[in-house]
Amino acid sequence: MIIKRIFDILFSLLALFFLWPLISLLILTASFDTNSFGIFLQKRVGQFGELFTIFKIKTVHPKTRIISPYGLFLRKTKLDELPQLINILIGDMSFVGPRPDISGYYDLLKSEERLILKLKPGLTSEASMKYKDEDDLLNKMDNPLKYNDEILFPDKVKINLDYYYNRTFLLDLKIIWKTVFL
After folding, report:
1. Model pTM greater than 0.70?
2. Bacterial sugar transferase domain: from which residue to which, for each copy (predicted)?
3. Is residue 35 within 8 Å of residue 61, measured between CB atoms?
């Protein structure tokens, strides 16, 4: 959808223009908080299963691997995701699409589920809204990895596959609206 890409470019530019002071402040504060550069870079699985580098604000101290109260605040408010506007602008991501995951999940999908890989990963999705408190949910589990692998991830795949079959620009606008206002 060309209209989706035009929307992504225009609104990521607009958001970056207005939010760059906030993003800069958050990165600077994260730099002091973690005693390291406040940007976190990680390889994620993108469109067609190709890896790309995702930008986030660092929330974990690199030596202790502990999430600080500031990092927890960034994660809860999703402010750590704001640098992904750059990923959207350069075309690695879109505003709406399956959240990009680390290797070992989306790249291992089988049969029909692999259709999800045709989509650009997104800043938001129906699945990410359903599991917006995923960290809290996983922390309550005796075996978080097993719960993620057997319950959460398969449900996200189902939701993202439904998005694949039913995606429209209007649906994207509805998902953005729900993300921002609900």
Report:
1. yes
2. 4-181
3. yes
